[in-house]
Design goal:
The chain has helices spanning about 60-65, 75-90, 115, 150-155, 195, 240-260, 300-305, 320-330, 340-345, 390-400, 435-455; strands spanning about 20-25, 30-35, 40-45, 50, 105, 110-115, 140-145, 160-170, 180-195, 265-275, 275-285, 290-300, 310-320, 370-375, 405-415, 420-430, 460. It is of the alpha+beta class. Helix 2 (about 75-90) crosses helix 6 and helix 10 (about 390-400) packs across helix 11. The radius of gyration is 25 Å and the shape is globular.
Length: about 450
């Protein structure tokens, strides 16, 4: 996948643009001559050009991850997990000729529209996941997908009823050993008609007799409170939901046992997702703790309707590959998945997918810890106007993966000046060598200077 990043019309990466004009007065008539607007900044990503605007917050560092395709890199831990999931679904669902029912899409463009990522999936306009502090926006209309579910409607609309989508997703998040701005997901959809679902009970129906066959507004996005009913959606019969639920849970428990062993202890937890109802999370008991493995549910019928599917019911599920790989391989730090160190990569072999080696640390390098505190501008509050995720992205841009963890350790408002202060603790540790305190101090100073330039803060 080709990546080319170009910023036009400005000397800095992120900026706001406006129009300017000149006025010339001739006698009593005002003649306004508008000068040509300045060239609008643009991003060229994967050969496509996108205009930037006030929503643009994606950074060159984040865009540099596009095309890495770690889940397709042979002998990589993520590739091994991906292939095991794909193989399981190939075996679980076959047609009459013995061929796999599920198709796999693992090279879809990660640049999606707001409609694909949110609107198509009935995610409310005020949902926290839409915020600039949570997503990487190219502009107000396009972003880097926050989940592979973003491709669900386009694939269903194309006539697919059994498919897996695998790829990287992008979210602005904290920095620690289990969070990274790019990670990988596998998403699946299975749709069935009445004839398939009730093959043994042809007298049963998918939909309630009282249901008219269409919603008052197929594009209506209901508030969360209306989607919390774990029994069923108003359009479906209870028999259809229960049979679909039984099949889904049977298959996903089978996947879990395939990955973690036949004796794994598990439980289902009711939850809420905007795009499924009812919804569940599957948890396993691992090392004396309950660990969430995946989320799933019965697809909201409004989504199928807008995809042109009116006579089917289906389920969907999503799972994070890093979460599984960290558990199965005993990998302690999510940054390792992006390492090109042969000492790491040589430990994993895709030839035998069921003989999973445990990660052996290459070496233990010491941590270096530095604190950074600063006063925010007088018109910015800690909890209103300042997002720690903005600072985390700045650190990633300046220091890359050398920063192992960032903690917000202090925040307060001065009683006299009214100015707000925040303090962060940065833990530095290189994955391949020992860092000296001198070079850490230099990087730390670069982060402080970049914070002053970017956020107009005052270092304490």
């Amino acid at each position: 996948m080709h990546l080319n990043l170009r910023v036009q019309g400005c000397s800095r990466y992120s900026l706001r643009t406006g129009n300017c004009s000149q006025s010339r007065w001739l006698g009593s008539n005002a003649v306004v001559e508008k000068s040509p607007p300045p060239a609008q900044p643009q991003l060229v990503v994967n050969g496509s050009t996108y205009a930037t605007d006030s929503w643009t917050n994606v950074t060159p560092k984040i865009l540099s991850y596009l095309g890495a395709n770690k889940d397709l890199q042979r002998d990589h831990p993520l590739s091994i997990i991906r292939q095991r999931i794909v193989n399981y679904f190939y075996g679980a669902y076959r047609n009459q000729r013995g061929n796999p029912l599920f198709s796999v899409y693992d090279k879809l463009n990660p640049v999606v529209t707001v409609q694909q990522n949110f609107d198509n999936l009935l995610i409310p306009s005020d949902h926290v996941s839409r915020q600039k502090s949570d997503c990487y926006y190219i502009n107000q209309h396009q972003l880097l997908r926050a989940h592979t579910t973003a491709h669900q409607v386009e694939l269903i609309s194309g006539g697919l009823d059994n498919f897996l989508v695998v790829g990287e997703v992008y979210r602005r998040d904290e920095i620690d050993s289990t969070h990274y701005p790019v990670f990988h997901q596998a998403d699946a959809v299975r749709l069935v008609t009445k004839d398939k679902l009730f093959e043994r009970n042809p007298g049963l129906e998918l939909f309630e007799e009282t249901w008219t066959g269409s919603l008052a507004d197929p594009k209506l996005i209901l508030p969360s409170s209306k989607c919390m009913d774990q029994t069923k959606q108003p359009c479906h019969t209870l028999e259809a939901v229960k049979l679909m639920e039984h099949e889904m849970k049977h298959v996903l428990v089978g996947l879990t046992k395939e990955l973690f062993g036949p004796r794994i202890k598990y439980r289902w937890v009711e939850t809420y997702f905007p795009f499924t109802q009812p919804s569940w999370e599957l948890e396993i008991y691992f090392k004396n703790n309950w660990l969430e493995v995946l989320g799933c549910g019965i697809i909201r019928h409004e989504i199928l309707q807008q995809s042109g599917v009116h006579q089917s019911i289906g389920y969907a599920f999503g799972v994070g590959l890093e979460r599984l790989a960290m558990v199965l391989f005993d990998i302690p730090d999510i940054r390792l998945f992006w390492s090109n160190d042969s000492g790491f990569l040589s430990q994993f072999i895709e030839k035998d997918l069921h003989n999973l080696p445990k990660y052996k640390p290459i070496s233990h390098y010491p941590q270096c810890t530095n604190d950074l505190s600063f006063w925010l501008p007088s018109d910015v509050e800690v909890d209103a106007g300042f997002s720690p995720n903005d600072f985390y992205d700045l650190v990633r841009t300046v220091a890359g993966d050398i920063v192992e963890q960032i903690s917000l350790v202090d925040k307060f408002k001065h009683p006299k000046t009214g100015k707000s202060s925040v303090g962060f603790r940065l833990v530095y540790r290189h994955m391949g060598r020992t860092l000296t305190q001198a070079e850490v101090n230099d990087i730390h100073k670069q982060i402080a200077n970049a914070s002053v330039d970017s956020f107009n803060v005052q270092i304490r």
